[in-house]
């Protein structure tokens, strides 16, 4: 990671990373300003949605391909890796010029043609677990990517549906520990932003994920969460993110020392 924005599985085995950024890229200025602040904090991997698969069709769906050049300019300026969601196989060739890692969202975990196409690219794929997928279904989805010879897969637990309504989803800590132990050689990334849906729980659950074995976190950050165009309830501000970042890195180091005894 130090000298290039390429992302590899090995980055996560060497060092704990947080992928941070807004749910959606809202403008070039917004993305630039936030990236600048995250870069100062020490973040090396940026996230930001360009195509948003929203549950409600009348909500903001992302800027689409006009945001490619914004994202490229920002990530190159700050020398950060960039992760963004691909929602359709037809986006892959143009998007490959912008992203360092393709995200497959929860709604597309079962989109096998998309997974097979991503199996042919030479970039990592962050594969989110679907809302109601069993761990086996999630790992079989990873096999669709592997089958085409792409071994760069990051498994991302982002919460599953349960009867609980106080939180948006139920972050499955069991799944983090399980896939870390039995899910193959893949880095395990936890997403407590979507897993809780609540900014006031994101830090606590980030630490729980690190203790459960997560190799990295995916966190939604916004300079002014109340004004975010998507997922405003779960975005944390930059100050809260700095606190989360420092605590998570300390805990990750502690866990690595503990596990190496
Ligand atoms: C996201 O990362 O903004 C997102 C839409 O996530 P998920 O697919 O987990 O809902
Ligand atoms: Mn989101």
Fold and architecture overview:
The two termini are 27 Å apart. The chain is of the alpha/beta class and 261 residues long. The protein is globular. The protein has helices at residues 9-14, 28-41, 67-78, 92-95, 112-118, 135-147, 173-182, 192-196, 202-212, 238-259, and strands spanning 17-21, 45-47, 81-85, 101-104, 125-128, 153-157, 188-190, 216-220. β1, α2 and β2 (45-47) form a beta-alpha-beta unit. The protein has an eight-stranded parallel beta barrel with strand order 1-2-3-4-5-6-7-8, surrounded by six helices. The chain is built from ten helices and eight strands. Bound molecules: phosphoenolpyruvate and manganese (II) ion. Residues 23, 49, 105-107, 128, 158, 194 line the site of phosphoenolpyruvate.
Content of β-strand: 5-15%
Order of helices and strands: HEHEHEHEHEHEHEHHEH
What's the Cα radius of gyration? 17 Å
Uncertain runs are none
Largest sheet: 8 strands, parallel, barrel
**Structural class computed from helices and strand pairing:** alpha/beta
- Identify the strand order in the major beta sheet: 1-2-3-4-5-6-7-8
How many beta strands in the DSSP annotation? Answer: 8
Helix content: 25-40%
> So how many helices?
10
- For the record, give the distance between the C-alpha atoms at the N and C termini, rounded to a whole number: 27 Å
Per the principal axes of the C-alpha atoms, what is the gross shape? globular
Bound molecules: phosphoenolpyruvate, manganese (II) ion
């Amino acid at each position: 990671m130090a000298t290039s924005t390429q992302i590899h599985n090995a980055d996560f085995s060497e060092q704990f990373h947080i992928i941070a950024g807004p749910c959606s890229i809202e403008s070039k200025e917004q993305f630039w300003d936030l990236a600048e602040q995250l870069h100062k904090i020490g973040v090396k991997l940026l996230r930001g949605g360009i195509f948003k698969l929203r549950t409600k069709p009348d909500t903001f769906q992302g800027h689409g391909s006009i945001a490619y050049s914004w994202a490229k300019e920002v990530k190159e300026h700050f020398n950060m890796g960039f992760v963004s969601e691909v929602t359709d196989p037809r986006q892959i060739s143009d998007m490959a010029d912008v992203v360092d890692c393709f995200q497959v969202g929860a709604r597309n975990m079962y989109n096998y043609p998309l997974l097979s196409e991503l199996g042919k690219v030479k970039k990592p794929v962050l594969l989110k677990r679907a809302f109601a997928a069993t761990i086996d279904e999630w790992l079989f989805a990873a096999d669709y990517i592997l089958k085409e010879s792409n071994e760069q897969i990051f498994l991302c637990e982002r919460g599953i549906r349960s009867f609980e309504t106080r939180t948006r989803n139920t972050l499955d800590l069991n799944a983090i520990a399980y896939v870390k132990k039995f899910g193959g050689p893949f880095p395990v990334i936890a997403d407590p932003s979507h897993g809780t849906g609540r900014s006031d729980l994101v830090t606590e659950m980030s630490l729980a994920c690190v203790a459960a074995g997560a190799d990295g976190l995916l966190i939604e950050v916004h300079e002014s969460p109340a004004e975010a165009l998507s997922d405003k309830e779960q975005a944390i501000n930059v100050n809260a993110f700095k606190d989360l970042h420092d605590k998570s890195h300390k805990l990750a180091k502690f866990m690595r020392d503990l596990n190496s005894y």
